Amino acid sequence: MTTIIAVTACPSGVAHTYMAAEALERSAKAKGWQCKVETQGSIGLENELTAEEVAAADLVILTKDIGIKFEERFKGKTVVRIGISDAVKRADAIMDKIEAHLAQLA
């Protein structure tokens, strides 16, 4: 089973951070994938990814609108960087592209 992890953060740290997390989780689960999203919002880190989850992930999605805290933990992983608004509005299309990429690697 494909395992995706993600970290979402937006400049204001409020609505888009959580809307993006929800959209990515929903879209990944629709493909039958496991997905966990850490949010880095105005109230700090929530749903923090563990070292084991990072190690087990097939792919990492990071939003690129502001810096992601502790990004070094993803070194050596395949990382996809997306805009926060794309995560909210185009999560299904993003997952389709990821699926095509993973199929090429298989």
TrEMBL record:
Q: Which CDD domains match?
A: PTS_IIB_fructose
Q: Return the InterPro entries for the record.
A: Bacterial_PTS_Sugar_Transport, PTS_EIIB-like_sf, PTS_EIIB_2, PTS_EIIB_2/3, PTS_IIB_fruc
Domain PTS EIIB type-2 residues, every copy: 4-100
Q: Does the keyword DNA damage apply?
A: no
A Pfam family reported for this protein in Swiss-Prot or TrEMBL = PTS_IIB
GO molecular function ontology, one term from the record: transferase activity
Q: What is its EC number?
A: 2.7.1.202
State whether keyword Transferase applies. Answer: yes
Which reaction(s) are listed as its catalytic activity? Answer: D-fructose(out) + N(pros)-phospho-L-histidyl-[protein] = D-fructose 1-phosphate(in) + L-histidyl-[protein]
Task: Please give the name of this protein.
Answer: protein-N(pi)-phosphohistidine--D-fructose phosphotransferase
